[in-house]
Write a structure and sequence with these properties.
Length: 468
């Protein structure tokens, strides 16, 4: 029997560089190779979302919408894909539907074709509105299951969740294995069952952290997966993904390979040189991390916490911190560790370790998560912890910061008037920067040089981390 070959999504421009160099790659380092990437024959390239939006404003002195304009201008034959955190969009808090629709409308206008929409807790209510608005814009609304393992996450759970995602209108389904936990045989069985139960295409995204990704991707191929995410070889493996060229070579014999391997080599060699510029952002990982299968702490999350301990002169507490994270995860009903739940659990673990006492100090975000503000918790909350949370909740002022679009428009107009920024006051993408990351956006517009990227790409102003 001939197995259908899956199409390939290239992730170097988003998750490949996010996983390996902390999302620090500048747009100017992407531009020279984009037209070559457009010739490869990828089904899509993941170019935006995740931590890229945040990092453009926070670290790179770039407007993320200018980056998207570059991609739209360069990719004439390849669909553009982004990662969207459901109601959180590309931020860390939930937004009103009016803001969600406005963001999606503009993302489509500026070039996004495929929206991979996920929720950290796999709460379907947190992705439903995004799917609706993407469908309204006639683009691909890809609903996502964030894969993890626990006593409550079994095959029946995943099949039901996937079916629910299809039922609310998703165009396609993604299995998002952000920590590399999906084992090859498990993947084969899961994909087989999903193909039997669903009528929409199924995509697989897995990471190399545990050393399983090559085998897992290949078993998904054997099971009939429709699309696989890979990263060009010079930005592959470790915290990242299976190498694009390697996976192609697994599927095709040399004489039947439809891909131009010389072109892929050119792209890989280009990014190999680019990577040298960002060496200081590389993580400490040098091989496979099998401990991930036990403690489930994603590499990106661990590297951030490790840096925080170093800054506090508490590097000796790292082992305690790693051991604490899965304990907290159990206490809070086995939440998957992906943005923003990974940051919330990680911050609470850090407090527990620094206090030398569990839950002596409770972060507001942790309290909110346990209280259901971020969505439905998959398992049961530890009764002892719930008692502490209930007591702490009484001392917290209720602050409903989910405002509608009109509220933010008025705030932005006032900010622009006070700071002589009239030229951006009516620009929808500048408004979105302000809504999503107010502090970073204010700093960007008031103090940073915005001309460099526009000069490079020849565009005019106003043209009409992270574990993801």
């Amino acid at each position: 029997m001939t197995i259908k070959k899956p199409t390939i999504t290239e992730v170097i421009l988003r998750d490949g560089q996010q996983s390996l160099i902390a999302t620090r790659m500048k747009t100017e380092d992407m531009i020279p190779i984009l037209k070559d990437m457009d010739k490869v024959g990828y089904s899509s390239v993941e170019v935006w979302g995740g931590a890229t939006y945040d990092c453009c404003l926070r670290y790179l002195d770039e407007n993320p919408w200018d980056r998207l304009k570059v991609f739209k201008k360069s990719f004439k034959n390849t669909k553009l894909q982004m990662l969207l955190r459901g109601k959180n969009l590309v931020g860390y808090r939930q937004f009103d539907d009016s803001v969600i629709e406005f963001f999606i409308q503009n993302s489509i206008k500026y070039g996004i074709n495929i929206f991979r929409i996920f929720d950290a807790l796999n709460d379907i209510n947190n992705i439903e509105s995004s799917i609706k608005f993407v469908k309204k814009g006639k683009e691909n609304a890809q609903g996502t299951i964030c894969y993890t393992t626990s006593p409550v996450h079994n095959e029946r759970y995943w099949i039901k969740l996937a079916k629910d995602i299809e039922d609310i209108g998703a165009t396609s389904l993604a299995i998002k294995d952000m920590a590399g936990l999906l084992r090859p045989r498990t993947c084969y069985e899961l994909v087989k069952k999903l193909k039997k139960n669903l009528n929409i295409p199924i995509h697989l995204h897995t990471h190399s952290t545990t050393g399983l990704s090559d085998a897992t991707n290949f078993k998904a191929y054997e099971a009939g997966i429709d699309n696989i995410d890979t990263s060009i070889s010079s930005f592959s493996n470790l915290y990242a993904h299976t190498a694009t060229e390697s996976f192609i070579s697994m599927m095709y014999s040399e004489e039947k390979n439809p891909f131009d391997m010389k072109l892929l080599t050119k792209i890989s060699e280009y990014f190999n040189e680019v990577r040298k510029k960002y060496k200081k952002y590389e993580g400490s990982m040098r091989g496979v991390d099998v401990n991930m299968l036990i403690n489930q702490v994603p590499g990106g999350m661990l590297s951030i916490l490790e840096k925080q301990l170093l800054d506090l002169n508490k590097a000796d507490k790292l082992k305690l911190l790693i051991d604490e994270i899965p304990k907290i995860r159990k206490d809070v009903g086995y939440v998957p560790l992906v943005t923003p739940s990974s940051q919330i659990v990680g911050a609470q673990a850090l407090m527990n370790v620094l206090d030398d006492q569990r839950y002596k100090t409770l972060n507001k975000e942790f309290i909110d998560m346990v209280n259901g503000k971020y969505g439905k918790i998959p398992g049961d909350i530890c009764p002892k912890l719930k008692k502490k949370i209930d007591k702490a909740s009484k001392n917290i002022d209720i602050d409903d910061d989910v405002q509608n679009l009109e509220f933010y428009k008025n705030e932005f107009k006032e900010f622009c008037s006070d700071n002589q920024l009239k030229k951006i006051s009516k620009n929808p993408t500048d408004l979105l920067n302000f809504i999503l990351f107010p502090k970073e956006a204010k700093d960007f517009y008031l103090h940073k040089n915005k001309s460099t990227l526009n000069d490079i790409i020849g565009l005019q102003e106003g043209f009409g981390l992270y574990v993801d």
